[in-house]
Design a protein that fits this description.
Layout (H helix, E strand, L loop, with lengths): L2 H16 L3 H20 L3 H17 L3 H15 L5 H14 L4 H17 L3 H18 L2 H17 L3 H15 L5 H18 L2 H16 L5 H17 L2 H24 L1 H110 L4 H13 L4 H12 L3 H8 L5 H9 L6 H8 L3 H17 L1
Helix pairs in contact: 1-14, 2-3, 2-4, 2-14, 3-4, 4-5, 5-6, 6-7, 6-8, 7-8, 8-9, 9-10, 10-11, 11-12, 12-13, 14-15, 18-20, 19-20
Amino acid sequence: MKLHHLVLFFLVTMLAACHPTSRDVKQVAQDALENARIQLDSGNKAEAMRLFKEAERYGLMANQTLTVAHARYHIAQCLGYYADKEEVVSLLKAAAEGFGDDYADRAEALRELGDFYQFHKQFDSAAYCLEQAMTFADQSESTEAKRNVLSAFHTLYFNAGDYEKSADYLNRFWQASISDGDDNLLMYYYHDMGNIYFESGDLDSADYYYSRLEELVTKTEPNEDTWFYYGVLSDYAEELGDYETACKYGCLYEEGNNLKEIEQQENNLALISHKYDSEVMRNELNRKIIIKQRIIVIVSLVASLVLAALLVSQIRLARRRKREAEINAELFHFKQQNKDLAQKHAENEQIQQDYADRLSDALMKEQRMMLLLDNYLNSNKKANLLKDLETLVYGDKNHWEAMLEVIDQLYPDLTATLQQKYPDLDEDEKKSYILSYFKLSRQEEADYLGTTVNMIDKLRGRRRKKMEEG
């Protein structure tokens, strides 16, 4: 192995060794994603957005497709329904594709995209996305994924004013939930069925489902979901004019919100601690990157100096070898001159003899052609004489067959390959393609094929389309 090859190998090895490891970058990407989710759950959307973008960046560096897909999905969620449409749609589509065979998450991304279209009143696009989401949810065999898509369909048709379809999808949602459903899912079902019948004007049915909701809420241990439904029951009681009941449930709703705020404050210390740990790990990675970059710079400078010295020595050696080659070439040329001079005399005599023979043949052909032309001009049998002239030039072939013989000599197998690869071309299209090898103008090609320039343009376009489809 040559010296400069060893230097290059050493340089590449050092650069690879100094580059941040994929494991470090992967760990930072995962930590950023986890910390971002915690920030999002705590309501700190701005910090969550920053961390999701970091997770996406480090995930791309580590080639973590799923991490990038999760980050893009959550970025779209953080942007919200009022963000730029193209950006949100692009993020959700990229996330759905990035999830690959993870069909449950893929269905969730498409469900989110359907909700986004629904918010902007693009109900057809929303329905299309939800149909795709349902396909992936079925493939995932995830009950939760199916429930989410069915719930999205129910909301879509409710907002579109199709209460019958909305109720149908909500019933399908509950059928999918019976096997592992809990009180929270049942409360959701009663609440939305009550809304559907209330909006459709069937107040008796609405009252039935709201009553069932009230029974279930009052006997369930208070939690985030029951506190929300206390607000729903308060609003419904107010609609019915039962202000005493509305006040009672309204107070319970406010009490639940206050307890939720206290619980969130208690979790802040754990959140800050987790965030600090993630920041420390990220700073440690950045420190390693800085140190390794400095090593890369030093190694690059040393390698550059070595390569420069090696390059100078190679240039000098090349010049010396070039001079030696020139001297040897001059000596060889001198030795060959005597042989060349001896051969030239014999070659010149042979050339003169060949030239005389070719000249005699050419003169004989020219004399015969002139005779035929003379007879053609002075005789009434012009058609027969013209045919004799064509036979003299083309033999027993037509003009195109004679042309093909010349083409096959210049471009062997061209016509056979054209017939095999593009059998749909007709004869004029084949001729046009073969003539393109001679770089003829449109007018010249039209003259040869006996047509107009406009027809040549159409012929070329038709030929090009068939060859692209083929």
